[in-house]
């Protein structure tokens, strides 16, 4: 397994190189002139040219990329053109919020998706099955930003049950990350803090996790239907095992590998695809920060955010692959 992990990490290098080249070229070829945006519409041509020279924008594209690559290998992704703050510091300060939102969304999606899929498979062609698949179809079809706005109108504006947007300001240290904060609030009996932290993350997590819930539900249903028809399931039932035991311990356990694969892919997608959700709910994560950077042509920030999310996506998929050995000891890595 160690050799397999090392091999996968080595393969990460060409992936990141390809991602960095694509992002670098797109941001430099198709973006507006950063110097003009920074100085504003009243800047003179001389001022713009001077700033372009200072930023190195007049250098050939390959020279700019080489300078960027040398800095990236040293952990330096440059500085924001707007705030002059190091990109790594800016992104890492917002990454905990993105992780919180993605984890909350995938937890909700996994719980509801697997439950709906299992029930639909067990009750195949019943009204319950039809309702579950209609729900899955709606989850796949509804745009996340539209669902987010609907949730805000219903639960925040009309019913006044949850906050409209934002994230509770509890700091960025590990002890202040929402997940740990919720646990700490429960242990200390501080229910007011617990409810406040939980209420801020419910709506964006539900909106972000709706698509993943539908995907997981459909995969679970199709996999369970295939497993339920196997001979060993009929044998388990013939032995007189309780149906609940047959479904959960025999069928679902053997159906978990493709389901875990989908969950892993969805988690990677959520970490990199929370842009619309973070924007709608004013969630201070990497996604909303990247949108702001794109609008301002702050290309060092965009490059850094995309590369970071690419690394996370690959590492998440590696972790999912390693889970296979736990779920099925017959799997060998090479």
Automatic annotation (TrEMBL):
GO cellular component terms, semicolon-separated: plasma membrane
- Superkingdom of origin organism: Bacteria
Q: Which Pfam families match?
A: BPD_transp_1, BPD_transp_1_N
Q: Can you cite a GO biological process for this protein?
A: transmembrane transport
Subcellular localization: Cell membrane
Q: How does it sit in the membrane?
A: Multi-pass membrane protein
| Ranges where the ABC transmembrane type-1 domain occurs | 95-324
Keyword vocabulary terms for this entry: Cell membrane, Membrane, Transmembrane, Transmembrane helix, Transport
Q: Which residues cross the membrane?
A: 9-30, 101-122, 134-157, 197-217, 255-276, 305-327
Q: Its principal location?
A: membrane
Family under the similarity heading: Belongs to the binding-protein-dependent transport system permease family.
Which PANTHER family does the protein's record reference?
A: DIPEPTIDE TRANSPORT SYSTEM PERMEASE PROTEIN DPPB-RELATED
What is the recorded name of this protein? Peptide/nickel transport system permease protein
Q: Which organism is it from?
A: Fonticella tunisiensis
């Amino acid at each position: 397994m160690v050799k397999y992990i090392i091999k996968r990490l080595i393969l990460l290098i060409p992936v990141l190189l390809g991602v960095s080249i694509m992002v670098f070229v797109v941001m430099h070829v198709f973006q507006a002139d950063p110097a003009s945006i920074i100085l504003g519409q009243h800047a003179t041509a001389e001022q713009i040219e001077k700033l372009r020279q200072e930023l190195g924008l007049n250098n050939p594209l390959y020279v700019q990329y080489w300078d960027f690559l040398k800095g990236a290998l040293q952990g330096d992704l440059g500085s924001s053109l707007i705030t002059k703050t190091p990109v790594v510091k800016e992104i890492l300060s917002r990454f905990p919020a993105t992780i919180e939102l993605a984890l909350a969304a995938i937890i909700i999606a996994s719980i509801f998706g697997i439950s709906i899929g299992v029930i639909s498979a067990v009750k195949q062609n019943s009204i319950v099955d039809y309702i579950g698949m209609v729900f899955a179809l709606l989850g796949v079809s509804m745009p996340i930003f539209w669902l987010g706005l609907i949730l805000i109108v219903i639960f925040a504006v009309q019913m006044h049950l949850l906050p409209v947007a934002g994230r509770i300001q509890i700091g960025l240290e590990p002890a202040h990350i929402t997940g740990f904060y919720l646990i700490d609030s429960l242990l200390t009996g501080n229910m007011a803090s617990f409810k406040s932290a939980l209420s801020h993350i419910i709506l964006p997590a539900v909106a972000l996790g709706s698509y993943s819930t539908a995907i997981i539900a459909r995969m679970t249903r199709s996999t369970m239907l295939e497993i339920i028809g196997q001979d060993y399931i009929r044998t388990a039932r013939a032995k007189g095992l309780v149906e609940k035991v047959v479904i959960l311990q025999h069928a679902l356990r053997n159906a978990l590998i493709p389901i875990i694969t989908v969950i892993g892919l969805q988690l990677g997608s959520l970490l990199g695809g929370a842009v619309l959700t973070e924007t709608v709910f004013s969630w201070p994560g990497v996604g909303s920060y990247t949108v702001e950077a794109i609008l301002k042509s702050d290309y060092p920030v965009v490059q850094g955010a995309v590369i970071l999310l690419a690394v996370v996506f690959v590492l998440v998929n590696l972790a999912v692959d390693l889970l296979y050995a736990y779920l099925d000891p017959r799997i060998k890595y090479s």
